[in-house]
Amino acid sequence: MSVCGTAYSVPRTRCALWPWVRTSAAVTVPLRKLPYPHDRSPGAEASAPHDGGMTSTRPAPHRVITPSILYFGTPVVVLSTLNADGSANLAPVSSAWALADVFVLGLGADGHTVRNLRARPELVLNFPAPHQWPQVEALALLTGADPVPPGKPAGCRYEPDKFGAAGWRPLRSELVGPPRVLECPVHVEGFATDLRPDATGQFVVVEARTLRVHADPAIVVGDTSHIDTAAWSPLVYNFRHYFGLGPRLGKAKRAEN
Ligand SMILES: Cc1cc2nc3c(=O)[nH]c(=O)nc-3n(C[C@H](O)[C@H](O)[C@H](O)COP(=O)(O)O)c2cc1C
C-alpha cells in the first residue's frame, strides 16, 4: 500500500497468483485526515463544540460508561483455513460482516488464522446455529499456533485437531482447500484478497471474496436461493454471551422474499 497526501492506493499484487482477482487498475481511495470528535484535550471543547446545534438543557438520560469490550451483537463465524502441513484450523470470530459478496473480518494479529491466510488465502466461513454455541465455546481458548503466541488470553493452548475438539466433522469444499464444517447450516467458500493492519497494529483487517455459498435446504425457500429468514437464525455474540434471534419485527422495503 502506498500513501501520499491525499490518497492511498492498493496495488493488486496478488493477481498473478489468484486470477479471479480483478487485474485492472489499482484501487485508489481518497484520504482525509479526520478530526477526532472525542478530542478532550484542554480547550478542545470550547473551540469545537460537537453538539450539532442542540440546545436542550434537560439532563440526558444516558450515562457515560467505559465498557471493556464493544461487542454489540454480531454473528459468530467459524473460519476454516489450511495449516502448512495441509491439515485444517478452525477459529471462531464475531468481527465479521458482509458488503455484497465481500466479507470483512477483524482478526487478532498474532493468531494462527492470520498466519495461515497470509500464506494460503483460501478460507471457509462456517455459520453455526444458536444451539451450537457449546461447540464454538469449546474452540475459544484453542490456537493452531505452536508455541502459543504471547498475546493470547490466559488458559489458551495449542490444539492441532480443532475439528475433534469441537466434535465436528470436516466436509470437502468444492472450490477451496480448507474443509467445511459439516454440522454448520451455512458455508461460504472464499479467498482473502487483502490483509492489512489496523491503526493500532493489534488487529488485521481481512477482506474476503465469496466464491460459493452452501446452505442446508431446511433454511432455504423452496428451490430458490433465498434464505428462509423464519427458519434461519445466526448465533449472535452479544457482549460475550451467546444468543439466537428473537421473532421477526418487520420487513425492509428491499427484502426479496
Ligand atoms: C464467539 C467468539 C468470537 C471471537 N471473535 C473473534 C474475532 O472476531 N477476532 C479474533 O481474532 N478472535 C476472535 N475470537 C478468539 C479466537 O477464536 C481465538 O483467539 C482463537 O485462539 C483463534 O485461533 P487461531 O489462533 O488458531 O487462529 C473469538 C472467540 C469466540 C469464542
Question: What's the layout of helices and strands?
Answer:
Layout: E1 2-3, E2 7-10, E3 27-30, H1 44-47, E4 72-75, E5 77-82, E6 88-93, E7 96-99, E8 102-108, H2 112-119, E9 122-127, H3 133-139, E10 142-143, E11 157-158, H4 162-166, E12 170-171, E13 180-181, E14 186-197, E15 203-215, E16 236-238, E17 241-243
Parallel strand pairs: 10-11
Antiparallel strand pairs: 1-2, 2-3, 4-16, 5-6, 5-9, 7-8, 8-15, 9-14, 12-13, 14-15, 16-17
Bound molecules: flavin mononucleotide.
Can you tell me the residue ranges where pLDDT is under 50 for at least 5 consecutive residues?
A: 1-27, 41-47
CATH architecture of one domain: Roll
Percentage beta strand: 25-35%
Q: Rg, please?
A: 21 Å
CATH topology term of one domain: Pnp Oxidase, Chain A
| H/E series | EEEHEEEEEHEHEEHEEEEEE
Measure the end-to-end span. 41 Å
Q: Cofactors and ligands present? A: flavin mononucleotide
Query: What is the top-level CATH class of one domain?
Result: Mainly Beta
The geometry reads as: globular
Give the number of DSSP strands: 17
Q: How much is the average pLDDT?
A: 86
Count of helical regions? 4
What's the oligomerization state?
single chain
| Major sheet attributes | 7 strands, antiparallel
| SS-derived structural category | mainly beta
In order across it, which strands form the biggest sheet?
6-5-9-14-15-8-7
Helix content, binned percent = under 10%
